[in-house]
Design a protein that fits this description.
The chain has 358 residues and is an alpha+beta fold. Helices cover 30% and strands 13% of the residues. It folds into 2 domains: 31 residues, no CATH class; 246 residues, Alpha-Beta Plaits (2-Layer Sandwich). A hairpin with a 2-residue loop joins strand 4 and strand 5.
Length: 358
């Protein structure tokens, strides 16, 4: 392998030369000489994802919102928990009377623009951080994917670290970056993790609701929009540890596969090509305004929110529904036919497009 070829005039490195042939949206950060046995897909032992969301996604529902009306019934006092952002939401100008045949649109009162100008308060940010922290460690994520029963060994996943970074303003919108380092992920897992954390923060639900979803109870957790989900970098710790220990026949120590030394240029690239695009799409589509359902200030999953694997949502195409009495063996038989996705990029035969990530 030629690592130091002669370069045309004007290029200081092979990386710079290779990038000159690539479109600006695709970059090569660097390269290392690896052992012959190295295979990037199999040597990757964990992954770091980032989920970027506008901070106004954490605003509570307005008092006229159906979700707020539901919370008023099942969880009195929830507005006291989210008092500061609730005051901002409720201060919205009244919706003008619609013309005949023309329903009132929040855009007509500039509500989208007003919310984009909101800056998260310290209490709301801390509550969101407390929610995200509940995911750290090894847990049963059967409620965070499709068709997996509680007893399936593959639903236990190890989240190494989770970090909610300080908000940053790009354009006119304040964004919050959540960095998730996990051993592996299942289909939809991160989007559902983010959805529940956002929903719980918005509704004044305590963090203990998240551990409750790791128990043997089937609940429906909606997916957060895919727009902000980004695979930031794969990790090769096991390979790097092995490379450091093996002799290199008197040559220089083996180089490690390590993306951290490129973090500065990677961040600059993300701001220019990813964050800016997210901002444009958010302004165009208002994706952060999507609402979710349920929860309460007790942090308890009510019986009415529970589902079984015999629910229509959890029966895959071609499966036979279990008997109406909820026979456990039939539930398990249906579950065994469900997808076996180790990572979010798995090809899943028999699933509809709606069930696939993104």
């Amino acid at each position: 392998m030629i690592l130091d070829p002669p370069l045309p005039e004007g290029f200081s490195s092979l990386t710079e030369y290779v990038n000159s042939f690539l479109p600006a949206q695709i970059r090569m950060w660097g390269f290392v000489r690896a052992m012959k046995s190295f295979q990037a897909r199999t040597a990757c032992d964990s992954r770091v994802y980032e989920y970027l969301l506008p901070s106004y996604c954490l605003l509570p529902p307005a008092k006229t919102d159906p979700l707020a009306e539901q919370l008023d019934k099942v969880s009195p006092g929830w507005r006291e928990v989210v008092k500061v952002p609730a005051e901002f939401v409720d201060a919205a100008p009244a919706i003008p009377e619609p013309k005949e045949g023309d329903p009132a649109d929040p855009k007509s009162r500039g509500e989208f623009e007003r919310r984009r100008g909101w800056r998260i308060d310290p209490d709301t940010l801390q509550r969101f951080r407390n929610m995200i922290a509940e995911y750290q460690g090894t847990h049963n994520f059967h409620n965070y994917t499709v068709g997996k029963p509680f007893k399936d060994a593959t639903v236990k996943r190890y989240m190494k670290t989770l970090d909610v970074r300080d908000p940053a303003v790009y354009g006119d919108i304040e964004w919050i970056s959540v960095r998730i380092h996990g051993q592996s992920f299942m289909l939809h897992q991160i989007r559902k993790m983010m959805s529940l954390a956002i929903l719980a923060t918005r509704t004044g639900t305590p963090p203990k609701i998240i551990p409750a979803t790791f128990e043997n109870k089937r609940v429906h957790i909606p997916k957060a929009p895919p727009l902000g989900l980004l695979l930031e970098q794969p990790q090769f710790k096991t390979y790097n540890d092995k490379a450091q220990k093996l002799p290199n026949h008197g040559a220089e120590p083996r180089e490690l596969v390590d993306f951290s030394k490129y973090e500065d240029v990677m961040h600059k690239f993300k701001v220019e090509w990813i964050y800016e695009r997210l901002r444009e799409l958010e302004l165009e589509q208002n994706t952060g305004s999507k609402d979710f359902t349920y929860l309460n200030t007790e942090g308890v999953i009510p019986e009415t929110a529970l589902q079984t694997l015999t629910s229509k949502k959890y029966i895959l195409p071609g499966d036979k529904p279990a008997p109406a009495d909820g026979d456990v063996d039939a539930d398990m038989e249906a579950a065994e036919k469900a997808l076996d996705s180790d990572d979010e990029d798995a090809a899943l035969e028999g699933l509809s497009k709606e069930e696939l990530e993104g």
